[in-house]
Design a protein that fits this description.
By secondary structure, the protein is an alpha+beta fold. The strands form 4 sheets. It has a 10-stranded antiparallel beta barrel. A hairpin with a 2-residue loop joins strand 18 (437-449) and strand 19. 45% of the residues are buried.
């Protein structure tokens, strides 16, 4: 199968080539105006697929170039699609005339929404023409379907992408963002089309797949994506739709918000002239976690008419997140190779892939995703925070944490180690940590206090206690543990039936403080031979280990 990738040596086309590099049944023509760049890309990429450099000029004789390529499929991964001029569908139309199917990774709402004008011509030619074969709207639409099976009404869709600051953005993407910053984006508010202002309307959100380490809270700004145009017609009861981007570092993001506000007020005509400067800054002024993510949150009424809320979260580690925008095109191509061909016609790519297609691609990389059902506040703390991952834990583990009212006591034996440094001993004494000892009798009493739980631990008669509750605000989807005036925000991470706690925040006296000022911890819980076992170590960079206690518990 021969696939012509326009922009094949660019950001998204290059990643698509790498995603398909294991497919020996493919010939990938890496196309663009510079055959030299295409040749370097083909030489540098290790691939079982055949990589062929190919000169392609979208402003040239398209019929002649397509005839020379002899492609079975054309993928437009170049852009910016917002700047394709008076005849934006020139490549797609040439493909239809040549009897070649076409897909693109367009991020322009007007471009993707308008592709249906070619539907009759595409059907007559027996080819498919799909636009927006990327994160937006192909992945978003697939997620919404997964979240809402059998629902009577979908009333709200809110979504956002939080890229890693180390991903790097192509100039075409930056030009597109700069072009619409401060200008109208077509959101829905209470069922009415409303001109929201791109990169001015903002909100905060935590991306947190159940049972995984979440991203830190992100600042999201409204962006003009195809989802805002092509999803509302699919859901007639939809009242609200919003899509945001949460790039970091946040200080640069906030600066962009301010400049977009000047465009909104008419003090600047456009940010387009600044696109090269933005491109330089985004790709050089980078710091923070090398992680990215995405969320999609929906609400409506289920098949029985009950109000329901549900969300899907994804976190990608390191360099794997930037591949996600090219995964929809990868999935379409792999399906074609296997003989699963989309129906003829021209349309936005909102129904040609399912989330399972993306999950197959996610599984090849360090990408984790999951669904969060809204959990009532009457449920146990860990059930609220862990959401759907809570049910993946063994029943004996859930029995210890399944406190809805009253109190529960478990007891067993433990060993305790204490730090030997002066500061470690002072801190341990202040909090009330137990003395060192082996085979120490231990009991833990859990008490439900409204939305909180008090954990009272007793080691050989020595007690210390803490309060735990679901986090909120910047610590949403985390367990908050309070030791007097100090608060630690922890993520419960599930791995092969074991739950470990990862610190994600620290505060004191009601103030959020830098995490490096707070404690370190290595803590996990698991069921071994039918017994609840725990291992907790608490320390600090300045003190080393303060206390470590480990042992087993069973219901008294």
């Amino acid at each position: 199968m021969r696939v012509l990738v326009v922009g094949g040596y660019g950001t998204f086309g290059g990643r698509l080539a790498r995603l398909l590099a294991d497919e020996w049944r493919l010939v990938l023509l890496l196309a663009g105006r510079s055959e030299a760049k295409a040749r370097r890309m083909a030489e540098w990429t290790r691939s079982d697929a055949v990589l062929v450099p190919f000169r392609f000029d979208r402003d040239g004789d398209l019929a002649a170039q397509l005839a020379q390529a002899r492609a079975d499929l054309v993928v437009d991964a170049s852009g910016p699609f917002q700047a394709y001029g008076e005849n934006p569908y020139r490549v797609a139309e040439a493909c239809i005339d040549a009897g070649v199917s076409y897909i693109d990774l367009a991020d322009s709402s007007d471009f993707v929404a308008g592709i249906g004008a070619l539907d009759a011509r595409a059907k007559a030619a027996g080819v498919f023409v799909l636009s927006g074969v990327s994160t937006c709207p192909a992945l978003t639409a697939a997620v919404v379907r997964r979240l809402t099976p059998g629902w009577r009404e979908v009333r709200s869709i809110k979504a956002g992408i939080a890229p890693t600051p180390w991903a790097g953005l192509g100039l075409s993407v930056v030009k597109a963002i700069a072009g619409y910053a401060g200008k109208a984006a077509p959101v829905l508010v209470f069922g009415r089309p409303t001109p929201g202002t791109a990169l001015v309307w903002t909100r905060q959100r935590t991306v947190a797949p159940p049972g995984a380490v979440p991203l830190r809270v992100r600042h999201f700004s409204l962006v003009d994506t195809p989802d805002l145009r092509v999803l509302p017609p699919l859901y007639p009861h939809l009242q609200h739709i919003w899509f945001g981007a949460g790039p970091t570092p946040e200080i640069l993001h906030r600066l962009l918000n301010g400049l977009a506000r000047l465009v909104e007020l008419g003090l600047l005509p456009s940010l387009s002239p600044l696109a090269p400067l933005f491109h330089w800054a985004i790709n050089r002024l980078r710091w923070g976690e090398h992680r990215g993510g995405m969320f999609v949150a929906v609400s409506g009424r289920d098949g029985e008419g009950r109000a329901i809320r549900r969300s899907w979260h994804l976190v990608a580690e390191g360099d794997d997140g930037p591949f996600i925008p090219s995964m929809a095109a990868e999935a379409i191509i792999r399906r074609l190779i296997d003989g699963r061909r989309p129906q003829a016609g021209a349309r936005p790519a909102t129904s040609d892939l399912e989330l399972a297609d993306f999950e197959t691609a996610f599984a090849r990389r360090a990408i984790v995703s999951g669904v969060r059902d809204e959990i009532p506040g009457s449920e146990p703390v860990y059930r609220q925070v862990m959401a759907n991952a809570y049910d993946a834990m063994p029943a004996a583990w859930r029995a210890v944490h399944d406190l809805r009212e009253g109190a529960l006591t478990v007891a067993g034996r433990a060993s305790v180690l204490r730090g030997r440094g002066l500061l470690a001993r002072v801190i341990g004494a202040f909090i009330g940590f137990p003395k060192a000892g082996d085979d120490v009798p231990v009991s833990v009493t859990f008490e439900r206090l409204g939305r909180r739980e008090r954990w009272t631990r007793t080691f050989a008669g020595k007690r210390f206690s803490s309060l735990q509750e679901p986090g909120h605000g910047p610590w949403r989807h985390l367990v908050m543990e309070h030791f007097g005036p100090f608060a630690i925000a922890m993520a419960p991470v599930v791995e092969d039936g074991r739950m470990r706690l990862v610190i994600r925040g620290f505060g004191a006296f009601g103030l959020r403080l830098p995490q490096w000022l707070g404690p370190t911890t290595a803590a996990h819980e698991e069921i071994v031979d039918g017994r609840f076992r725990f291992d907790v170590e608490i320390g600090h960079p300045l003190t080393g280990m303060i206390v470590r206690y480990r042992g087993w518990l069973e219901q008294a």
